[in-house]
Design a protein that fits this description.
- The complex is a heterodimer.
- Chain A is of the alpha+beta class.
- In chain A, a hairpin with a 2-residue loop joins strand 16 and strand 17.
- Chain A has five domains: 192 residues, Aldehyde oxidase/xanthine dehydrogenase, molybdopterin binding domain (Aldehyde Oxidoreductase, domain 4), CATH 3.30.365; 171 residues, Aldehyde Oxidoreductase, domain 4; 325 residues, Aldehyde Oxidoreductase, domain 4 (2-Layer Sandwich), CATH 3.30.365; 120 residues, no CATH class; 233 residues, no CATH class.
- By secondary structure, chain B is α+β, with helices and mostly antiparallel strands.
- Chain B folds into two domains: 81 residues, Ubiquitin-like (UB roll); 69 residues, [2Fe-2S]-binding domain (DNA polymerase, domain 1).
- Helix content of chain B is 32%, strand content 14%.
- Chain B starts with 15 loop residues before the first strand and ends in a 9-residue tail after the last helix.
- The chains are: A alpha+beta, B alpha+beta.
- At the A-B interface, helix 6, helix 7, helix 17, helix 33 and helix 36 of A face strand 2, helix 1, strand 4, helix 2 and helix 3 of B.
């Protein structure tokens, strides 16, 4: 079982191309066209200038097998199956004998991008003609061989037979064998009549699902090429905004990733930054660690409420329709009705972040890609890399569903740049955060309607204006490398379905074309979905104002008979009850019910566009008038798609459209701050999940004799208006801005608002915070008490051979109990070379190098010098050490233990690298002040108690002397000294983490028993309290060499400290009126409520949730909790194997504050809410994360 | 973040040998202990069933069975996987026969792009093993942290109900391998 040598299972594209160009035993059908399909932004005439094109569409081989080629690709819609149905039908071959090759530039025709769901409607036509051309040729060839007229022949299952003598027949393969015949597609070749169809129009199981269900399908993510290495990219800071990029990168610090194993390269080209490593996890780590510095980026307007930003964006008006006299009609309308509708920025939200593999072979580039637009990508890469197009092959593989355009093209270009830089095949996987942030969004849109009722209650006029920021989104690498620069282009794409379907006498439609604001591209329904939201909401408003049933009102002005048929059929199927006012569906308790209608024919493509399938919805909603939550409970959806190639496929597409568009309407809006996108994971961009999926009743209008129409988007288009019209029916309130989140609906229904978590920030003292906190008081002590101590003379490093192995082994245990490495670990994480910074409010105290190096370490220290440092906090040269070094505890250490520790340290390998010098800010950098401090606070404590047993006394020694637990777990006074007495071990702060109380003051919901403490110290995890993280994880790791008896002794002693203090009662989480947090639900609940990480300690028991301080919970969210799973994997199979991921690079301060506040409110409901959370998150984020775990 | 004058090596990155049990076979993998199991399954063992979706345990695309539980392999460190029975989508079939859940997903055409399919099938296997006769609400709740963007929920729910019926009739292996 190994990946080595496993390759992508298709032959090389050049070989495949040569096969079709040269092999014998083939019948081939080529299509000749003039020019290629236009690219977005082509100069006029560029497409035609490509000259005559000859492209292969179909091949029949000597075994009778058929390969058909199509430039448009399968995006999860089942096109691969539907196209194969068309070919099998027209050629009369078994469905299983048809293979589709989609979108590979080496073989498939250039049909432009796969957009507007036009594959079946447009791209399939030449394919069908190619099959008809081949069929005619094969029948004619058989006619010669069989010596019968073609009229006497029939075809079935790929064999031509004499109709009257069925035993006389020749299979296609036999007709093909022995020659190579190239035909030119004849659009006039006779097509099969629809009545004779046996494959098209029937449900056919999808060809790809059996392989996908067993993990045998090769998605682009699964492509492996021999010698492949792994790349990650580092994007600029303004997430999802490409304006102004190209020269914003100031510096890349390669030293910041020098420690990454197997690092191959750091690549920088303009603003493009990538890393390559032998292993994927190391590439990911390198991308995370790489330090980059950027020049400031331009700020963004508020895109969370996009109306003002869109109105303020410079635009050009384009009039699509001007019928009658709109201005005059408006001036005379007896009742005016002017409305504005607002659509938010939304995401495609592919479940799999984009991925690509690129390889240069003898200067030719092969890119394995999930692109929707293979030939367009080929052109882009030619520009990016200065290569002719014919030296670039795009091998198209399926990827996660995309619904428009995700980052597939971007990552393909990234992979090409990295492969060129390192001279090896490179696979680049974008992260979830990058896909969310940088995918070109579905644009926000603002629609204004001015109109009203005439004297008869009819529409007086319809003056429609729509504002749509453009969606060109050049492939990102082109911008980052400066290949494409200058102001972004404006494309006229706001016009889809901008003309309403109703016969308004006076109507004007104006599109305001404008450049992009955030990076955007087409998303399912493009501008048609928002435009229809306005059209279909507005006509509902007119109907209500006129006192007419909304469907009846529409039918008065709908002059397309096919549309009217569909509307009536859907109304009947839904048992629509005509009504003229809201509230017809009543309510129960806090729940109100409503029902709404909407209709659309999706008109896509450049204006005036082409119509795809007709669709209509009846939506039923339930709304909670207290919480504002809206559920779509049932949708009756009708669609007229003309001839349906695969009715099952159409039905599935409709289901998908209904569910996805319901999700968009109810939940979806991209979050932004002033720099860019803040929705970088699924919690901050929630989508509809199983419990919220409505019941869906699909009505397919059978029209087998009408041409097939695209079914991939139409059923989305009526969604928003149907749902908001239903919400109006339920509540009597019109919602004209999406999404319909609980917050926005609650606000409109106007119940009391629920207070947010934040209050003014409050500073809290951290470790050493109080050291000079009294400021003048400390200075007032004066510099009298031996500020400098005499130096011990330096010695030659003692020969470790002078110490017995037993002594050194004993010293190792002392170092373990003292957890020296927690602070003194070197850059390799193991040696005692020091260098770790310990944060204090006054600056960073760096742990010293305590290896026996003569210069950098303590090799020149005699034992008396070492003992003085340990017990009195004075360095060999006489300067005082800051009490970050816990000499106040070590003063109680046994002489034999200190000697053993000295021997152990002297036996280590010397490390010559000096630790950084600690430089605290003035006046705190004055080490002599420590002398005053020591005089006040440094004195041995007595803790032995002969009345207690030996375990207790051993535990006390380990905890109080060697373990110096109080250094972190005791609060410190104003001068930074550990407090004694009742405050001893009553909780403190260290290195940005709270060290909770070990006494009766513990806030743990369950008391810490001796067994709990033992488990925690031994395994890093207590199933009743939580896991060790941060510095405590290092302590647990350090304690590992200690015998179980010592750990038990510590547990005995510590358990005795908790006394009978009242531990908080464990909290049963009640279903309270707490408003649900969609952020917590999406970001945290899968593991913390759904068990997807194993049996985690319930949040209701986790100490950090109950603490007075939010710091540890914030630390956990920012930096993850990994030690329990990956450092101390429990032999206990019931322990959860998952490690909590770090959300530092994923969530904003505000988002972390929100989940922390929610966890507190939900899981520690008796505890007071934390205040100033966002500031607290910012503060903790600013600390250097505790290294490693 | 404060400037750190020297990068601190992360001991999680130091490779070590780990013995795993995957789909009933013993394998040894040399990688850092903190390496996510997902990367090991895909890159070292060439198993394409589990998919990278978020790396945050949110979406479920990477789900595998760990001692019979459906867990997120993107959040499981390699070291924590040692000593546990790991089963991926590729390991569900027994004796050449697909798992009834796989059969039901194929029969119901319960995929559009299919990227989430691994997580749906693995979660459904664990769900139906624990509760052979779940109600509609239980199925929906059991799958609620598995995200599908194509909107295949209706077909997936139908497949899970069909699989439950098949498994109750004893049509195939009753649980994970």
């Amino acid at each position: 079982m190994t990946a080595r040598g496993m390759t992508e299972n298709r032959p090389d594209p050049a070989m495949r191309r040569r096969h079709w160009q040269e092999a014998d035993d083939l019948l081939l059908v080529y299509r000749e066209t003039m020019g290629r399909p236009p690219r977005l932004g082509d100069p006029p005439g560029a497409a035609a200038a490509a000259g005559p094109q000859r492209a292969l569409y179909l091949a029949v081989d000597g075994a009778g097998r058929v390969t058909a080629f199509n430039g448009h690709v399968d995006l999860g819609t089942g096109i691969r199956t539907a196209l194969a149905q068309i070919v099998a039908e027209e050629l009369d071959v078994p469905f299983a004998h048809v293979a589709m090759e989609l979108g590979s530039t080496a073989t498939a025709p250039d049909q432009g991008g796969t957009i507007a769901s036009e594959t079946i409607q447009i791209a399939a036509i030449p394919l069908r003609q190619a099959a008809a051309t081949a069929r005619r040729h094969l029948v004619e060839a058989a006619s010669l061989r069989l010596n019968r007229g073609t009229a006497e022949l029939t075809v079935a299952d790929g064999t031509v037979r004499v109709a009257a003598e069925p035993e006389l027949g020749i299979p296609y393969g036999e007709l093909v064998r022995g020659s190579r015949t190239a035909l030119t597609l004849d659009p006039g070749a006779p097509l099969k009549p629809v009545e004779a169809y046996t494959v098209v129009g029937r449900p056919v199981p999808r060809v790809d699902i059996p392989e996908k269900a067993v993990g045998a399908w090769t998605y682009v993510h699964d492509v492996r090429v021999p010698g492949m290495v792994h790349g990650r990219v580092v994007r600029p800071p303004g997430a999802g905004v490409d304006a102004g990029l190209g020269d914003r990168l100031a510096a890349v610090d390669e030293a910041s990733v020098a420690h990454i194993p197997g690092l191959v390269a750091v690549v920088r080209i303009g603003d493009f930054v990538g890393v390559v490593a032998e292993r994927e996890e190391n590439a990911a780590e390198a991308a995370r660690c790489l330090r980059t510095t950027w020049h400031p980026l331009d700020g963004l307007p508020d895109l969370n409420r996009p109306e003002a930003a869109l109105r303020g964006n410079p635009s050009t008006a384009r009039t699509l329709l001007d019928r009658g006299d709109v201005d005059r009609a408006l001036a005379h309308a007896p009742a005016r009705l002017d409305r504005t509708y607002v659509w938010p920025y939304q995401m495609h939200g592919s479940i799999g972040p984009s991925c690509a593999v690129a390889e240069f072979r003898d200067g030719d580039l092969v890119v394995w890609s999930g692109t929707q637009n293979p030939h367009v990508l080929q052109s882009d890469l030619a520009l990016l890399l200065d290569l002719p197009e014919d030296r670039i092959a795009i091998e198209r593989h399926e990827a996660a569903g995309c619904y428009g355009r995700n980052c597939a093209d971007d990552v393909a270009a990234d992979a090409a740049l990295l492969a060129r830089a390192v001279g090896r095949p490179v696979r680049v996987q974008l992260t979830r955060e990058q896909e969310h942030a940088w995918e070109p969004k579905g644009a926000a849109q603002v629609m204004d309607v001015r109109g009203g009722l005439d004297a008869e209650g009819g529409p007086a006029a319809y003056d429609f204006e729509t504002r749509y920021p453009s969606n060109g989104a050049p492939t990102l690498a082109l911008i980052l490398t400066g290949k494409v620069s200058g102001p972004p282009a404006t494309y006229p794409m706001g016009d889809r379905t901008a003309v309403p379907p109703y016969a308004f006498g006076h109507a004007r439609v104006t599109v305001h074309d404008m450049p992009p604001i955030a990076r955007a591209s087409w998303l399912r329904g493009v501008s048609a979905l928002p435009n229809t939201f306005a059209h279909e909401s507005y006509i509902d408003e007119l109907a209500t104002a006129a006192g007419v049933d909304p469907i009846e009102y529409r039918l008065r002005y709908l002059d397309d008979p096919r549309a009217a048929d569909l509307v009536r059929a859907v109304a009947e199927r839904a048992a629509w009850v005509p009504h003229t006012a809201p509230g017809t569906h009543g309510g129960a308790g806090d729940i109100l019910y409503g029902r709404g209608f909407a209709y659309a024919v999706y008109v896509h493509g450049p204006f005036p566009g082409k119509a795809a399938a007709w669709a209509a919805w009846v939506a039923d909603v339930a709304v909670n008038r207290v919480t504002g939550e809206v559920a779509v409970t049932r949708v009756v959806v009708g669609q007229d798609s003309g001839l349906m190639i695969n009715p099952d496929g159409v039905r599935h597409q409709i289901h998908g459209n209904v569910i996805q568009s319901t999700s968009r309407v109810l939940k979806e809006s991209v979050g932004f701050d002033a720099t860019g996108v803040t929705s970088r994971e699924w919690g901050s961009y929630p989508i509809l999940a199983f419990p919220q999926v409505p019941e869906i009743d699909v009505l397919l209008v059978p029209r087998p004799n009408e041409p097939p129409l695209g079914a991939g988007e139409s059923a989305s288009v009526p969604s928003a208006a149907a749902i908001t019209n239903a919400l109006f029916d339920a509540t009597g309130i019109r919602f004209r801005e999406l999404p319909l989140t609980a917050e926005s609906v609650r606000a409109a229904l106007d119940p009391p608002r629920i207070a947010g978590p934040d209050a003014p920030p409050r500073r809290r003292r951290g470790f050493l915070a109080g050291l000079f906190g009294a400021g003048t008081g400390a200075l007032a002590l004066g510099l009298t008490l031996l500020p400098w101590r005499p130096a011990y003379p330096s010695i030659e490093r003692p020969d470790p051979a002078a110490y017995s192995a037993a002594t050194i082994a004993q010293g190792r245990l002392v170092a373990a109990a003292g957890a020296c490495l927690v602070c003194h670990a070197g850059p390799d994480g193991r040696s005692f070379a020091g260098g770790r910074g310990i944060e204090t409010p006054f600056g960073t105290v760096y742990a010293s190098n305590i290896t026996p190096d003569m210069q950098a370490g303590i090799g020149a220290w005699s034992y008396p010098a070492f003992a003085r440092a340990m017990r009195e906090g004075v360095s060999r040269d006489g300067h005082h050490l800051y009490p970050a070094h816990p000499y106040t505890s070590f003063v109680n250490a046994a002489e034999r233990d200190l000697q053993a520790l000295y021997a152990f340290l002297m036996a280590q390998d010397p490390v010559a690298a000096p630790a950084p010098e600690t430089k605290l800010r003035f006046p705190f950098g004055a080490r002599p002040l420590m002398a005053d401090w020591n005089a006040l606070f440094h004195r041995p404590a007595a803790f032995a108690d002969p009345a207690r047993g030996p375990d207790w006394n051993r535990g006390a020694y380990l905890v109080e002397a060697l373990g110096h637990c109080g250094a972190c777990h005791s609060p410190r006074n104003a001068l930074g000294a550990e407090r004694r007495g009742a405050a001893h071990l009553a909780g403190g702060f260290a290195d940005g983490w709270e060290a909770p109380a070990l006494t009766g003051l513990s806030r743990s919901p369950l008391p810490w028993t001796e067994d709990d403490l033992y488990a925690y110290l031994r395994t890093g995890r207590s199933p009743r309290h939580g896991s060790a993280a941060g510095p405590m994880a290092d302590v647990v790791a350090s304690l590992a060499p200690l015998p179980d008896g010592d750990i038990r002794a510590m547990a005995v002693y510590l358990a005795s400290l908790t006394g009978s203090g009242p531990a908080a009662a464990p909290v049963a989480v009640a279903a309270t009126a707490l408003p649900a947090s969609s952020l917590f639900q999406g970001a945290c609940a899968s593991c913390h409520e759904g068990g997807a990480g194993g049996d985690l300690v319930p949040l209701g028991l986790v100490t950090s949730v109950h603490s007075a301080h939010p710091d540890n919970l914030i630390q956990a969210v920012l930096n993850g909790v990994r030690a329990a799973a990956e450092r101390f994997p429990a032999p206990d199979p019931s322990a959860p194997p998952a490690a909590m991921p770090a959300f530092r690079d994923t969530l904003t301060d505000g988002q972390i504050a929100e989940v922390v506040a929610y966890a507190r409110a939900r899981y520690a409901p008796g505890a007071p809410a934390w205040t100033g959370l966002e500031a607290a998150v910012a503060r903790v984020r600013g600390l250097t994360p505790h290294a490693g775990w | 973040m404060q400037d750190d004058p020297r990068p601190i090596a992360d001991p999680r990155l130091a490779p070590a040998r780990h013995a795993l049990t995957v789909n009933g076979r013993s394998v040894t993998v040399e990688a850092a202990p903190g390496t996510r199991l997902l990367y090991v399954l895909r890159n070292d063992l060439a198993l394409n069933g589990p998919k990278y979706g978020c790396g945050l345990g949110q979406c479920g695309a990477c789900t595998v069975l760990v001692d019979g539980r459906a867990l997120r392999s993107c959040a499981i460190p390699l070291r924590a996987a040692v000593g546990r029975r790991i089963v991926t989508l590729e390991g569900l079939a027994e004796g050449g026969r697909l798992h009834p859940v796989q059969e039901a997903f194929i029969a119901e055409n319960a995929a559009q792009c299919g990227y989430c399919l691994n997580g749906m099938i693995m979660t459904a296997v664990a769900l139906l093993t624990a509760d052979p006769d779940p109600g509609e609400a239980e199925i929906r709740a059991g799958l609620q942290a598995n995200l599908c963007r194509c909107g295949t929920h209706i077909e997936i729910l139908r497949a899970v109900r069909a699989a439950a019926a098949r498994m109750r009739e004893g049509a195939g292996p009753g649980g994970e391998a």
